[in-house]
């Protein structure tokens, strides 16, 4: 079977499996929510609410029905692409919540990944090209430390230093509350301000992104540093690299034009999955920095047992991860002819 034919079969198989993967996520979220201790009526209305009000809420959520009937009703709702209505947002649909909060998450994710790749790949290249030196040891320590530090602790520490004490960056918002944010189709402030030609709004939005994006990107960079260092070290020992050295090609050109390209192939997979996971809600980062993204909204919904919102957001997250994982496989197959499916 030819390689192109094999890839086509692989794509078809992944597309057929995608609904099964989403169904698995839906089922797990549904069951785990119901297994969580506590009554949603108490969490939403409070312990002092009249019992009649609590019973009415349980009835509206279908919680009085048997579990299997609740499950079938929810699956039928999903098949019609209806994610439900939030219990705590004054009748707002879950789709509206997603479209309202997801742009903030997407913006935070994109710029954080840019920071992570810039720092991680740079340090990884320096470490791999200078093995067993102080730079290499420092790069390895950097990768271990940044990978192991918890985001909530570093986030609070950076806010305390750079926002509270030094007052270099703002705290707890996405845009100044006394200014009108950019208004556009995407909801991504940096893009919308550029599309409208308002550079003042662009620089303001970028300024508010610096601290959370740098914090998240710095901690993620350790993953890419370790991946780049290990793969680049292995690639620099390959036969074709030795042959290039024997032909007198400068080491810098060998590193950047030949070895790095092949060493980055495994990094693409990690990049894609990390990007998908962050798009699925950088919950700890958003909560730590009070960033009004979808991860923060999910945290609030879990706190008050807002079943429709939690289920809808998690289904959306799961679909993102499934789609991105398929795209990453296809990109890897395209750029690396050695990959066979």
From TrEMBL:
Domain ABC transmembrane type-1: 102-332
Transmembrane segments: 12-33, 110-129, 141-164, 205-224, 263-284, 313-335
Coiled coil stretches, renumbered: none
InterPro entries named in the record: BPD_transp_1_N (IPR045621), MetI-like (IPR000515), MetI-like_sf (IPR035906)
Membrane topology: Multi-pass membrane protein
Stored PROSITE patterns: ABC_TM1
SUPFAM superfamilies attached to this UniProt entry: MetI-like
Top-rank taxon, per record: Bacteria
UniProt keywords, alphabetically: Cell membrane, Membrane, Transmembrane, Transmembrane helix, Transport
Predominant cellular place of this UniProt entry's protein: membrane
GO cellular component: plasma membrane
Any one biological process term the GO annotation gives: transmembrane transport
CDD domains listed in its UniProt record: TM_PBP2
Compartments (UniProt record): Cell membrane
Signal peptide, first to last residue: none
Family note: Belongs to the binding-protein-dependent transport system permease family.
Record's protein name: Binding-protein-dependent transport systems inner membrane component
């Amino acid at each position: 079977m030819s390689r192109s034919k094999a890839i086509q079969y692989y794509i078809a198989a992944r597309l057929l499996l995608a609904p099964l993967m989403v169904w698995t996520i839906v089922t797990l979220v549904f069951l785990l929510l119901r297994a969580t201790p506590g009554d949603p009526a108490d969490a939403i209305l409070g312990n002092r609410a009249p019992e009649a009000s609590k019973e009415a809420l349980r009835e509206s959520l279908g919680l009085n029905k048997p579990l299997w009937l609740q499950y079938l009703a929810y699956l039928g709702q999903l098949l019609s692409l209806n994610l439900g209505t939030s219990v705590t947002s004054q009748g707002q649909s879950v789709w509206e919540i997603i479209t309202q909060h997801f742009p903030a998450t997407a913006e935070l994710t994109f710029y954080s990944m840019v920071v992570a790749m810039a720092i991680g790949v740079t340090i990884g290249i320096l470490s791999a090209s200078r093995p067993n030196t102080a730079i290499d040891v420092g790069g390895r320590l950097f990768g271990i430390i940044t990978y192991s530090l918890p985001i909530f602790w570093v986030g609070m520490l950076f806010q305390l230093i750079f926002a509270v004490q030094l007052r270099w960056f703002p705290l707890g918002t996405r845009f100044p509350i006394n200014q009108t944010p950019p208004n556009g189709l995407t909801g991504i402030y940096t893009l919308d301000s550029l599309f409208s030609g308002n550079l003042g709004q662009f620089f303001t939005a970028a300024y508010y992104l610096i601290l959370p994006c740098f914090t998240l990107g710095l901690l993620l960079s350790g993953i890419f540093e370790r991946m780049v260092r290990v793969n680049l070290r292995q690639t620099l020992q390959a036969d074709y690299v030795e042959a290039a050295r024997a032909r007198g090609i400068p080491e810098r050109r060998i590193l950047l034009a030949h070895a790095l390209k092949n060493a980055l192939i495994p990094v693409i997979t990690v990049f894609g999955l990390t990007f998908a996971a962050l798009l699925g809600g950088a919950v700890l980062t958003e909560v730590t920095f009070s960033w009004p993204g979808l991860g923060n909204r999910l945290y609030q919904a879990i706190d008050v047992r807002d079943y429709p919102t939690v289920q809808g957001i998690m289904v959306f997250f799961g679909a993102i991860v499934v789609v991105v994982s398929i795209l990453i496989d296809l990109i890897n197959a395209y750029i690396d002819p050695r990959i066979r499916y």
